[in-house]
Design goal:
Shape: globular
Number of helices: 15
Strand order of the largest sheet: 3-2-1-5-6-7-8
Distance between the termini: 25 Å
Radius of gyration: 22 Å
Helix content: 25-40%
Number of strands: 15
Largest sheet: 7 strands, parallel
Strand content: 5-15%
Length: 442
Amino acid sequence: MLEQNLRMILVLLVIFIATGRSSTEFTSKAKEKFRILGVFHHPGKSHFDVFKPLLEELARRGHDVTVLSFFPRKVNDTGVEVLPNYKDISLLGSVDVWVNVVHLETMSYSFMNHIIELPKLREWGLEHCEAIFKLANVKKLINSKEKYDLILTENFNSDCFLGFVHRFQAPFIAMTSHQIMPWGYERMGSPDNPSYVPCTFLGFSSRMNFKERVINTVFTSVAKLTFNTAYQWSTQKIVNDAFGPNVPPLDEIARQTAAYLHNTHYSLHGAKPVAGNLVEIGGIHIGKAKALPGDIKRFLDDANDGALLFSWGSMVKASSLPEEKLMAILKVLGNIPRRVIWKWETNQLPMKPKNVMITKWLPQFDVMNHPNVKAYLSHGGLLGLTEGVYVGLPMVIVPMYGDQFHNAAAAAARGAAVIVRYDELDEITLKSALDKVFNDTR
């Protein structure tokens, strides 16, 4: 917890400097109130879960924070802290929020999956930008006379919200919920030698052989070229339509980024040379573990031989598993001498073993902190993986898309996880992996 507090203070210091104040002016109790605009265009909940703690902390410290996102705070819910300085501009209604949207019936793996993710990212980015700029409340902000001291925005699959930087003429900081995208290094003047800095998309660790280094170099170069040409040309038109024809080229605005906060940590993803304006914030979303709901607590309290946490995150719909894989998983789980708590999106699980508890949603980090939970069956999402490393749980990782292959490779290289490819997931591979994480003392 001390590390997390120090990291938060470091991030706030970066923000203070970005707004034009010297480091000697900074204290954690700075009395000056900043007006901060946060712009987060991606509808994935796990992305925003990284940014939310920083935005809320800024509001707690007295700054006026306005946030465009798909995840407005539900301040009327019991237990949700009221933050008068935190104002939401909701993006709901423009596109669907990404929760339980990955269906597994047609999930397959091939190396081509990594390649086709680039055009998919472009398609999603353009779709989201076009839809969001049509919202009345977004148009109202664009046409307003508001003034901001700082803008925080996500660097992911589109630079369309850099239009707000031009509109309000404010310094800005980029944030990402994962490792830096290939196109993120150059704009910060930071090296990214592809011989030992693996591309987010490929699933390589920093310990690449010669063939992997060649693939990594070619793919990284293609990703950069694709984003800086086809991505930006299409995005520039959308931005000009929304903000007017005088918006400078987006790559010029991007090079003015004051700092880049990225959700990684060298202890997991390895050390690499970076410019001083890139700040690792891995684990910033982790807070104190809370008390568990009664039914979950009772289930885990009675797990005298240990328990397995099984969660494939907020986007993967585990209940869409094809029957063959589901039966293999159930057979393995039913035969291990431990209890299993599983994030499962429906009320029923056919042939559910007696030692398995299903729940549509679970407080993942709180469950991890229960002393009887001894291992974690994950999909390699960075938030859950970071929490697993933080708590010290050995993991079985079944990566499926995005940066999950990259995260899994990093965890396996560090000796924290065993990888099982989804297309190879069956009774034999899962049983072997679980045996390792429960019984191999390494």
